[in-house]
Design brief:
about 65% helix; 3 helices
C-alpha cells in the first residue's frame, strides 16, 4: 500500500532514487549492451563457430559479418528514445 506521507523529491525518496534506481538504470541501460559488445568484439574472428553462434547468434544473424555489432547500436537507439520520451515529458515538451 502506498504511503501518502512520502513527498517526491525530498529526503528518503531522493536517497533511494539516486542511490538505488539510478545505478541500476545505468548498469542495465549502458552496462549490459556494452558488456555484450565487448564479448562479441573479442569473439569477432570466430563468429561462424557454433559456440559463438549459440551465445550471440540471435544478435548478429541477420547482419553482414562486418556489421555484427549493429544490434547493439539499435539497443542504444531504443534506450535514447525511451529516455527522451520519459525525461522530456517532465520538462513539458510534448513528444
Amino acid at each position: 500500500m502506498g504511503d501518502l506521507q512520502v513527498i517526491c523529491g525530498e529526503g528518503l525518496y531522493d536517497t533511494i532514487t539516486l542511490g538505488v534506481a539510478l545505478p541500476c538504470l545505468i548498469a542495465w541501460g549502458i552496462g549490459i549492451p556494452a558488456g555484450v559488445w565487448i564479448m562479441m568484439r573479442s569473439s569477432r574472428d570466430r563468429l561462424d563457430t557454433m559456440a559463438v553462434k549459440e551465445k550471440f547468434g540471435f544478435l548478429y544473424n541477420g547482419y553482414k559479418r562486418s556489421s555484427y555489432f549493429w544490434e547493439i547500436v539499435i539497443m542504444y537507439r531504443k534506450i535514447l528514445l525511451i529516455g527522451i520520451s520519459v525525461f522530456m515529458n517532465r520538462i513539458g515538451i510534448i513528444v
